[in-house]
Specification:
The relative contact order is 0.31. The termini are far apart. The radius of gyration is 12 Å and the shape is globular. The chain has a 5-stranded mixed β-sheet. It is of the alpha+beta class and 105 residues long. It is built from 2 helices and 5 strands; from the N terminus they run ββαβαββ. The structure holds FE2/S2 (inorganic) cluster (FES). The site of FE2/S2 (inorganic) cluster has 14 residues, from loops. This is 2Fe-2S ferredoxin. Keywords: 2Fe-2S, Iron, Iron-sulfur, Metal-binding. One of its GO terms (biological process) is P450-containing electron transport chain.
């Protein structure tokens, strides 16, 4: 499937993904600017903050307690924010749009 990453300056990056890969890893593999994944996907750094397009939010599931804690410290947190490392891509996400925050922690 394909996911569309939109950076804060509205640049669109449409990338192929394999199911089971985290959104953070997909972004890093495709050199999407603004996703660092500093902690390697341990839900400990917050540098993989993504804002899911509202119509796609439900499909990404619900943030866990630890993710919720990290998100609560994220300055640009939006109602549909997720940590990219905590969301695994599924076929249902084909065509999904996610936005990058202006500043990544
Ligand atoms: Fe560190 Fe997601 S990669 S919190």
């Amino acid at each position: 499937g394909k996911i569309r990453f939109v950076t804060h300056d509205q640049t669109e990056h449409v990338v192929e993904f394999d199911t089971g890969t985290s959104l953070m890893q997909i972004a890093v593999d495709n050199a999407i600017p603004g996703v660092d994944g500093d902690c390697g996907g341990e839900c400990a750094c917050g540098t993989c903050h993504l804002i899911v397009a509202p119509e796609w939010f439900e499909i990404t599931g619900t943030p866990g307690d630890h993710e919720e804690q990290m998100l609560s410290m994220t300055p640009e947190r939006a109602p549909t924010s997720r940590l990219g490392c905590q969301v695994r891509a599924t076929e249902a996400m084909d065509g999904m749009t996610v936005r990058l925050p202006e500043f990544q922690m």
